[in-house]
Amino acid sequence: MKVGKISNTVLKRTVLKTISDSYNVYVPEKNKVGLDANKICIDEFSPMLMTTDCGIEPVYTVANNICARGGKPICIQCSIVLPQNFREIRLREIMEELSKDCRSLGLAIAGGHTQVSDSVLKPIISVTGIGIMEDDKDMMQSNKANINEDIVLTKWIGIGGIRNIIKHSKENVLLKYNIDFIDKVIGNKEDMSVLPEAEIAKKAGVHYMHDVSQGGIFAALWDMAEASGVGIDIDLRKIPVKQEIIEICEMYDINPYQLQSAGCLLMTFTDGYGIVDILAKQGIKASVIGKTISGNDKIIHNLDEVRYLDLPKQDSLYADWKGNVDDERKNIKFT
After folding, report:
1. Mean pLDDT of all residues in the chain?
2. What's the pLDDT tens digit per position in 266-302?
3. pLDDT at 227
4. For residue 65, what are the CA distances in angstroms to 44, 162, 199, 243, 270?
5. Residue 79 phi, psi dihedral angles, 5° rounding
6. 170-196 CB burial, b ≥16 within 10 A, e <16
7. Are 161 and 88 in contact (CB under 8 A)?
């Protein structure tokens, strides 16, 4: 199989089908595509939410998954598997980065597990996020888009992926662009959190939320339509993307619409333009990029060109890169 998140086809056929009866009174919801955090009901009060990730920026990813279900992330547990030749100082660096991310999000580290294995060639970091739903009666319980709603996207696409590219290939990028350009591309790491907009969206009457992570905006749109049983009609030109991100993507022959975009929150509202105004007053950029429609069509408009969204593809970070860019790019290792 390809590196990265498995395809939706494999997920449904081999994973979800196998565990289709794996739910009970404490875990009342079946797992499904587009449901990245599941509810655990310990008592009649605040249900828990749990989710796991081992990809790029896993602390931010699990926190965003919980926020997108209408919850509040409170802590993580982390499991780290190290290769035999790994030095203790590198383990310290990993833990310092995890701790820093947790502090910025107000999360505690509630334990975990660390071991060395001769079966891995590089560190594998798996983070489980735990959160609560403070009010189980809110509308996010269904988390389902309805027909004829505005589709809203916060910030801009490619946030998480472009930070990872520069993290592992800064010297190569500096051969073409100056440090001011790179700093503008990277932005603030806090941009990768969707907590502020998720809180505002809940109060404003959001019907569906989904964080945009592996596979980029195209994968997130597919997941939204799949989870809600609706079609979508999207204007490609309205999907926000920084020009600087486009230029870095062109340098590596990467599709920005299929690039990891942690920090973007996909939502549906009856009045999408109203929530855009509300978010703007809080300093959060948001755009209406399309509408939900009846049926199963997933339409993408680009001026006079009309195409249909394909099944989610492998994230551009993991795909084979093409073009005539310096071969140094082939040595980048994404974690």
Report:
1. 82
2. 999 999 999 999 999 999 999 999 999 999 999 999 9
3. 87
4. 22, 20, 13, 27, 23
5. -120, 125
6. eebbeeebeeeebeebbbebebbbbbb
7. no
Strand 108-116 and strand 72-82: pairing? parallel
Structure tokens belonging to residue 10: 């494999």
Please, is 33 exposed, middle or buried when counting C-beta atoms within 10 Å of its C-beta (0-12, 13-18, 19+)? Answer: middle
User: CA-CA distance, 292 to 224, in Å (whole number)?
Assistant: 10
Reduced to 3 states, what is the DSSP secondary structure of residue 269?
Answer: strand
3-class DSSP state of 209: strand
Cα 269 from Cα 197, distance rounded (Å): 13
Does an H or E element contain 169, and which? Answer: helix 159-174
Q: What angle do CA 165, 161, 116 make, to 5 degrees?
A: 75
Which residues share a beta bridge with 125?
80
d(CA 72, CA 54): 20
Give per-residue pLDDT as tens, 49-76.
888 888 888 999 999 999 998 889 988 8
pLDDT confidence of 194, banded at 50, 70, 90?
very high
- Yes or no: say if 260 and 213 are a contact pair by the CB < 8 Å rule: yes
For the record, the structure tokens of 172 come out as 């190569």
Expressed in angstroms, the distance from the first to the final Cα of the chain is 18
Confidence of residue 216 (pLDDT cuts 50, 70, 90): very high
Give the pLDDT of residue 320. 47
| CA 335 – CA 114 distance, rounded (Å) | 17
Tell me what pLDDT residue 261 has. Answer: 93
Q: Token digits for 12?
A: 């449904």
